[in-house]
Design a protein that fits this description.
It is rod-shaped, with a radius of gyration of 41 Å. A hairpin with a 2-residue loop joins strand 1 and strand 2. By secondary structure, the protein is mainly alpha-helical. It contains 4 helices and 4 strands; from the N terminus they run H-H-H-E-E-H-E-E. It has 2 domains: 134 residues, Helix Hairpins; 59 residues, no CATH class.
Amino acid sequence: MDPNVQIIIKKLIELQLLDRELVESERKHRENPRKVSELEEKIRSQREKIESEKELLKNLELEQHQKENDLKYREDKTKRVEAKIRAVRTGKEYQALLREIALTKKENNEIEEQLIRRMEELEQIRMGLVGQEEALKKGEVEVLAEIQKLQQDVEGIEVQIDRLQAQRAVITVGLQKTMLERYRRIRDRVSWNVVIEVKGGICQGCFVNVPPQLFNEVIRSDSLYQCPNCQRIIFYDGGNPGGRTPEAG
């Protein structure tokens, strides 16, 4: 058993555990600004929706005002026609005016009903806007608090990343550049658990049997060996030189 091999394996196990934590911290560091942007976009979208509703309300109120003026004009016109009846000299003209008055009143009633329905719609829109603006104010407070928390988390994560990178620099002292490059290539392919234990002749990374002769060599630990199937660096000593067995994955 080569003590140097045991030291390298121990360092690599520590390195892969640290790298997993480092990658997770870096992921959070990337995601938090994205979450902040999503929260800001959510509030911006709500504001735009409210402004759109207000513009719609303004146009509907203008249309309502125009219809009210139109109704007033028609009612005045009806009164003028009714006033003409007193000056009518023939029955034919009298009947014509009565028909005109009846038709105008019918149309006026229809317009008035439309105005009443529109007034109800306008009131619903106003009430809806009040609710939306209250929800927006509450949402802005909550979003601002969440954004501040995310920004504070980013600061904490940056400190953690610096700490992990410093620890990584310490762990990699004594590891040759070729060894680190080998570790990186395997990690890029299998994601995690670059170094994995062999138990009962089975690689705990891919769960494939290691050839018996290779397994015996791994037990002797005279050199670094890789699983023929998944190419992970494999070791065996009845335990873990790093003080813990990496989870298979």
